[in-house]
Fold:
Amino acid sequence: MSENITQKEILDIATSIGYYILKYGGEINRVEDTVERIGLSYQMDAVHVFAISSTIVVTMVKNGNAISQTRRVHKLETNLERVEQYNALSREICNNNLSYDVLLERIKQIETNISYPFWVSFLAYSLVGGSFAIFFGGGIKECIVGFIVGFLLRFVMLATDKFQANPFFANATGAAATVILIKIASLLLPTLNVQTTTISVLMLLVPGVLFTNCIRDFVATDYTAGLSKIVESIFIATAIALGVGVSMLWR
Amino acid sequence: MTNIFVPFVSAFFASMGFALLYNVRKRHLVIASLCGAFAWMFYLITDMFTNSLVIPYFVSGISIALYSELAATIFKSPATVFLIPGIIPLVPGLTIYRTMEACLYGDIQGFAEGLVNTLKIGGAISLGLILISSFFKILRTRIYKK
Structure:
């Protein structure tokens, strides 16, 4: 072990990096592997890591002295750029052991780095809404309506974020708003294919990636993580179906 | 030609939208979105030759994993960066939604069918992904040891 870092500090850094990779959407496998590698590169005798999508527990053993740390992940927010940066940082740690202060500085730097300006998320919502309309066989009308409704849906989701709404409520509201907006659009454009447009905008909310990742966890033998994700995706899908059902009452 | 080209372009932009939402770095943006477009093309081509529900998904799962592992090796970044935007056109989002809709409207048969289909699709994609990533994992450990 290098002189400028204690066992406690190594544990702290490794747990932080694991926590952030988990939070920003890295696979469970990657999280556990990264934390273990960091610990072993600082000559720990043993490193034990357990991660599920909401918690990470790390224990490091050195000369018979075991200490451990736990972090709770409250909200997953997928940010693949940060996953990439933490991955690069952990590789650097394994190649040459950095000191505690440098590491703290690097983590702070990654956390404050913003990759895209705020308006890009509006563009992304519109892009998804519009292109899925074509993808599901719609025409140019469906594409334009999907584009606009996707843009407006971003406002609704921002509002639910602002009030820190429960995910069930947030998704139900988003789905209901989508259906109502498309119904208004169909009043203006009577020949609009309502079903195609609705489905294409709802692709922004449905937990398809979450579900596929949970099966991936099952196949990679992380059963507990997979179970919690499958429950989450069923929960969100129910909320969306409920939101659509409620707003269908208005004809 | 148009029946391949239009889905290719729309899958590309759909993947790009999600790649932007997931903060994929600017220099990987086009590469990651192309992953989704190629995956959907593989799906459509395989779908022409088979009546099975799962085989096209399995084949395109394999193509996504191959593409992202190669891109990851070239750009020295984790494969997830290319993989997550790549599976966007394939994920069973629509099937999940239809399943829960059937459940809420009391259509038990539709619900059961949807549930089985969702599991089949999800399983087929993930099996394709896992197959290739475990292969690359073995390959990398062997190269490191030498």
Notes: Chain B has one domain: 2-145. Residues 2-145 of chain B form one domain.
